[in-house]
Inverse folding.
């Protein structure tokens, strides 16, 4: 019996092949037939009438680890066409976690991923301690989209070392313990091992996230433990000091794919990201599998000086980290502090979120009415008018406004010529939505719709077939997702029906629907007519169905 039949769809099958008009039949969650004018009867027929049908989007870089325990809909990703989300990126996970470490884990996430501490405290359902127990909880609870989970370095380190995880190198005995946790996690269905060495990644009180304290030996040992079963992907958000050649040595030793994040274009050091991509290409030419995670979205962040993520990675910002209220204001007003920040911003570096592009920082909203005259103006404009230094200008507006001023900064990835080349690079992977994190700063969960609409249709940077391939079969093959990522007989019926003439991500809007009423930015889909996960509809033209079924599977079986 056929459950679902799409009639006359423009099938973009995910393989990169040219689109064809065809019917697609689904039974028991799988695609069972594909062809012109299928002679079958179905319980439900959808007249696609030329709308495009593609495999659901696979989002390889999300941070839904905490949210999924209270929100199995993984909002807003499924409504934006995502049918599989990979969680645990950068190694910022919530399992394994001892009860005594819950508070520090949540505080770290608040700092590093911009998650509301009140939402985390009210929301996280802590019924697990080990990684296996966490997966069991996810399996029992269910989710709207399929989920695959990395085992995360920072959680593993905290589990073994407690508070010392953010302070020192590990002993050989501790590394051995970490290896056995990683081995166990892989045996229980982790998709791989994720870590970060990025200086932008700070936890509670400005201490580095635990994985940043790992020596190369520790990293080598843990990636080796991951690879023992002949499966798994190593994912790393790297700092400038982690070289591609070191990562190549890990890829060579383990014969496993290495995903390198976060390759974002920086107009101040425009070659840096291409140097990394060139090094990745050279490693591939030597037979290693390395991929650079790139983004099709300009990185724009909303922030206040109470929690200014764009500058918190600066070493000179350290005195302000972890402070709030009057203590924070004292630091921000301090002359020596400002001089140190100015000096650091003048130094050259390969990766920095904020690079003194004051014309790209705007005042969005002020709390005090007499400051509203600055709204919608750039810091560069205000500073020029007042004949003052831009850093002083921004900080003084914020201080006069009780740190409530909302600024927005266009940080990285806004040069569309450069980004187009990165998206088309043979060894890049379109990723970096960061869905589930940085919820008040930005929302790129709709990256897939943006690739289809903006990059493929509007700019012609790539064909529709290639854009679809990059969102589906490409991540599926890197991650080892079996039977997903293409529209083919026998494959899971993860499907996205959309109008290629209108598909886009809508504007961001602010909602207050997190636990404890915390705010987040969300985005609506444009041109999406339906999303199916394992053959069950979860989204229609109006967005996520009110009673969307928990149709997703916890993916634990990956190709070698
Ligand atoms: Zn991340």
């Amino acid at each position: 019996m056929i459950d679902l039949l799409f009639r006359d769809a423009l099938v973009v099958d995910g393989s990169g092949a040219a689109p064809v008009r065809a019917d697609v039949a689904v039974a028991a969650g799988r695609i069972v037939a594909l062809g012109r004018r299928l002679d079958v009867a179905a319980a439900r027929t959808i007249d696609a009438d030329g709308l495009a049908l593609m495999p659901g989007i696979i989002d390889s870089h999300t941070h839904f680890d905490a949210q999924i325990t209270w929100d199995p809909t993984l909002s807003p990703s499924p409504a934006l066409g995502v049918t599989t989300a990979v969680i645990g990126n950068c190694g910022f996970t919530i399992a394994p976690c001892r009860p005594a470490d819950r508070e520090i884990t949540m505080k770290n996430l608040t700092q590093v991923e911009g998650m509301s501490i009140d939402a985390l405290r009210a929301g996280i359902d802590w019924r697990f301690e080990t990684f296996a127990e966490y997966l069991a909880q996810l399996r029992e609870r269910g989710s709207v989209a399929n989920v695959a989970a990395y085992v995360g370095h920072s959680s593993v380190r905290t589990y073994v070392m407690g508070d010392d995880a953010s302070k020192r190198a590990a002993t050989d005995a501790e590394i051995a313990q970490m290896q056995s946790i990683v081995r166990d996690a892989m045996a229980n269905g982790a998709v791989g091992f994720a870590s970060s060495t990025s200086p932008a990644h700070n936890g509670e009180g400005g201490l580095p996230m635990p994985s940043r304290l790992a020596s190369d030996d520790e990293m080598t040992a843990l990636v080796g433990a991951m690879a023992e079963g002949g499966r798994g992907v190593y994912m790393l958000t790297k700092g400038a000091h982690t070289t591609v050649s070191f990562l190549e040595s890990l890829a060579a030793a383990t014969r496993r794919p290495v995903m390198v994040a976060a390759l974002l274009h920086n107009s101040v050091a425009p070659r840096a990201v291409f140097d990394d991509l060139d090094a990745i290409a050279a490693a591939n030419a030597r037979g290693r599998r390395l991929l650079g995670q790139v983004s099709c979205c300009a990185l724009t962040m909303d922030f206040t000086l109470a929690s200014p993520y764009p500058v918190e990675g600066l070493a000179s910002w350290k005195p302000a980290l972890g402070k709030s209220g009057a203590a924070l204001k004292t630091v921000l007003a301090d002359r020596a502090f400002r001089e140190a920040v100015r000096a650091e911003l003048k130094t050259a570096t390969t990766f920095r979120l904020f690079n003194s592009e004051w014309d790209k920082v705007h005042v969005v909203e002020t709390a005090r009415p007499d400051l509203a005259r600055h709204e919608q103006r750039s810091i560069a404009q205000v500073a020029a008018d007042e004949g003052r230094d831009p850093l002083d200008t921004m900080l003084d507006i914020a201080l006069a406004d009780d740190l409530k001023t909302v600024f927005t900064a266009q940080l990285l990835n806004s040069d569309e010529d450069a980004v187009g080349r990165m998206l088309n690079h043979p060894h890049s992977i379109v990723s970096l939505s960061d869905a589930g994190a940085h919820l008040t700063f930005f929302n790129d969960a709709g990256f897939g719709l943006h690739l289809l609409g903006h990059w493929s249709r509007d700019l012609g940077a790539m064909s529709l077939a290639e854009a679809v391939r990059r969102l589906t079969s490409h991540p599926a093959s890197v991650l080892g997702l079996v039977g997903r990522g293409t529209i083919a007989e026998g494959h899971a019926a993860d499907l996205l029906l959309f109008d290629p003439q209108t598909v886009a991500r809508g504007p961001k809007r602010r909602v207050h629907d997190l636990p404890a009423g915390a705010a987040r930015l969300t985005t609506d889909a444009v041109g999406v007519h339906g999303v199916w996960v394992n053959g069950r509809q979860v989204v229609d033209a109006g967005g996520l169905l009110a009673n969307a079924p928990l149709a997703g599977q916890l993916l634990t079986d990956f190709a070698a």
